[in-house]
Amino acid sequence: MHQLNETHAPDLRSWVERANDTGCDFPIQNLPFGVCLGAAGEGSRVVVAIGDQVLDVAKALAAGLFDGLAAEAAQACRTGRLNELMALGSAHQSALRLQLSRLLRAGSQHRAALEHCLSAMTQAQMLLPAQIGDFSDFFTSIHHATNSGRLVRPDNPLMPNFKHIPVAYHSRASSIVVSGTPCPRPTGQTKPAGASAPVFGPTRCLDFECEIGFYVGQGTQLGESIPLAKAHQHVFGLSLLNDWSARDMQAWESQPLGPFLAKSFMTTLSPWVITLEALAPFRTAAAARGDDAPELLPYLNEQSDRAHGGLALSLEISLQSQAMKKLGLAPCVISRPKFQDQYWTLFQMLAHQTSNGCNMLPGDLIGSGTVSGPREGELGCLKEMTADGKSAITLPNGEKRSYLEAGDEVVFRGRCERAGYASIGFGHCSGRVMGE
């Protein structure tokens, strides 16, 4: 795992003043990567978030502000996407992060040169940070699995393989979009209760799923597996992910195979990638497996992963209806899941994905599956919150929601906190359901 170093020091301050604000998502201890649209004729640009500003890495390179491995890493950023930086590996990535941290610290002698590389975050049109070749979505919350299973199998909600294997399905990379993209209501086959045959039309059960997505860094060759002890070397960083879901379509088509049209219409990603190195202070023990847990097979069982495979990351789900927006009411928080409750770790997911020799490419995306906790206020989707539409939640203006309606906007946020360290945020992942 990444070791703590000078970039994590809690007393670091930046000459970008807003980076020092209490509660800022992007203090100098974070320095996440993203991609935005440049000025006319510039194309896409790799940028780093600092406070309320974005730093253009290629411009800083042109100004001669990097050397050694950091300069090689910055050179990879000139492609206007993160794939080439991801492919270089942790030594280059850490060198670039270290030089960025030193350049942006209060008292830096390079402030004047670097100021020309900054622009306001509010003016940045963010894009997907990488070319995503493949996307696998896992099912790693035992609480989500149990809650969902109880709706159809009340006496035996958890499938027998859940505690043995990180279950996943292969999803659609082409329909992944960046935060802020409107969500169309998908159409497909459903089979209403009591009907003798399916019907075709718009879903009536549009849902969100609050997840974490992580990007593969260095890839592998076909036939090569990634040992669990080395999986962290192949993880570049994490983002927020909304796996939009049509529950009525999903229930009908997932017999006997997994989700298909109910998921492939759209997946939303937050634009900022929080590097695994930035998250080093917040690594924690993997979730307890329980006294009845079976012995893990060796390829999924490794001491360091049990000790440090978890992540102390608190998530927040907010919802704002169209009527709330017209009344000037802010989005209301409807749940606060915790990522450290996931039964399987990020690294177990990657080790399992490659255990059959499946090759991985830099920029491939892996989703954690819905993040849900053991308590009512920690559920990660409306299906769980409303018992599949049977018990609606109430919004501040009195509106009821069993599933999402036209004009509803869903916003995810994430934050890592630990005593003795500067807290860091993930920005936000948002999407509004199209229609009036």
In short:
The protein is α+β, with helices and mostly antiparallel strands and 436 residues long. The protein has 12 helices and 25 strands.
Distance between the termini: 48 Å
CATH architecture title of the largest domain? Alpha-Beta Complex
Report the sheet-strand fraction: 15-25%
Shape: globular
CATH superfamily heading of the largest domain: Fumarylacetoacetase-like, C-terminal domain
Helix-strand category: alpha+beta
Report the top-level CATH class of the largest domain.
Alpha Beta
Annotation, overall tally of beta strands: 25
Please summarize the sheet with the most strands: 8 strands, mixed
Give start-end ranges of low-pLDDT stretches: none
Domain count: the total is 2
Our Rg estimate from Cα atoms comes to: 22 Å
Report on the architecture of this protein.
This protein is of the alpha+beta class and 436 residues long. The protein has 2 domains: 6-127, SH3 type barrels; 135-432, Fumarylacetoacetate hydrolase, domain 2 (Alpha-Beta Complex). It is 20% helix and 24% strand. The chain has helices at 57-62, 68-76, 83-88, 90-104, 111-115, 142-152, 247-253, 261-264, 303-308, 322-326, 346-354, 382-385; strands at residues 33-37, 44-50, 53-56, 118-120, 126-127, 135-138, 168-170, 176-178, 187-190, 199-202, 206-207, 210-216, 235-242, 245-246, 267-269, 274-275, 283-284, 310-311, 313-320, 332-335, 365-367, 393-394, 400-401, 409-416, 424-432. The strands form 7 sheets. Strands 6, 7, 8, 12, 13, 15, 16 and 21 form an 8-stranded mixed sheet that branches. The protein has a 5-stranded antiparallel sheet with strand order 4-3-2-1-5. A hairpin with a 7-residue loop joins strand 24 and strand 25 (424-432). The protein is globular, with a radius of gyration of 22 Å. The mean pLDDT is 97.
